[in-house]
Amino acid sequence: MSTDLAESMLSRRGVSVDSIADIVFKLQQRYHPKLTIQQCEESVRAVLGKREVQYTLFTGIALDELAEKKLLPEPLQSILENDEPLYGVDETMALGVTSIYGMIGLTSFGYLDKEKIGVIEILNEQSDRIHVFLDDLVAGIAAAASSRIAHRSPDAAQYAAGSD
């Protein structure tokens, strides 16, 4: 399965690969001064290429869209309309995405969930749309893409080789 459908669904909801890559860049630039935005885009697309990420994204977006159309049964409809703080299912789904490149993404996800930077903030502030799932899924994708970059760092290789 290609990333085309995932990218198209994200785009329809106002999210581009570039906007997620910008978040990844902000997360990793301090640790990788030679990092490029193109590498971040590649990493985002690698995450989006994972079938389990695509399925999670499709599910979350569908639930957000159904809530916008008022097509969910109660009490779920009210919970999503109000973005109930104790709901937590949105974060649970995003954590599945976050962990595909190891648990290192957990701290990045927590940071992004709290700080709401970049497109995550834009999604969170839109009052005319429901993004209960999408804002967390974007944070999860960015955290996973950031983890992927961290795992590919030449600095990390020295520990695997047992050198100083």
TrEMBL record:
Stretches assigned to the YutG/PgpA domain: 29-150
Domain of life: Bacteria
Pfam families reported in the protein's UniProt record: PgpA
GO biological process, one term: lipid metabolic process
Signal sequence interval, chain numbering: none
InterPro entries: PgpA-like_sf, Put_PGPase, YutG/PgpA
GO molecular function annotations of the record: phosphatidylglycerophosphatase activity
Protein name (database record): YutG/PgpA domain-containing protein
Source species: Paenibacillus solani
Lineage summary: Bacteria, Bacillati, Bacillota, Bacilli, Bacillales
